[in-house]
Specification:
By secondary structure, this protein is mainly α. It is built from six helices and no strands. It has helices at residues 10-16, 23-50, 68-79, 88-93, 96-100, 106-120. The longest helix has 28 residues, at 23-50.
Length: 121
């Protein structure tokens, strides 16, 4: 504050904050700093996408795993070679909740497998 007024001395306040920049040049430096900070992640993303993606090795199992899920998959693969499958067989491999879902009844399963088999011939 000035000795004779109750208003703060802005020049002294700016200097206490570490900068004596005033007016337009002070505002521009903050704007430039803010712009650089905003563009840095975008420029980093552009630089990152310019490099080639890492090689992804494709893993294809030569065998069906020895597990409960593997046993069900083996059954489905074998059953799909002797279509149509009886209604009782899918009930032993799929939950009643799955078979009650729209489009998943034993008859619809047979129809889907028959369409798939006809498409391969």
């Amino acid at each position: 504050m000035n000795a004779g007024s109750k208003t703060p001395d802005l020049q002294r306040h700016r200097e206490a904050l570490g900068g004596s920049r005033s007016g337009v040049s002070g505002r521009w430096s903050w704007l430039v700093t803010l712009g650089v900070m905003a563009l840095a992640p975008a420029l980093g993303a552009v630089a990152a996408s310019a490099s080639p993606p890492p090689r992804v090795s494709r893993f294809v199992a030569a065998q069906v795993p020895e597990s409960v899920a593997g046993a069900h998959l083996r059954w489905l693969l074998k059953a799909s070679t002797r279509l149509p499958i009886g209604d009782a067989e899918p009930r032993g491999h799929f939950s009643k909740w799955f078979l009650r879902a729209p489009g998943e009844s034993p008859a619809e399963l047979n129809a889907a497998l028959l369409r798939r088999a006809a498409g391969r011939r």
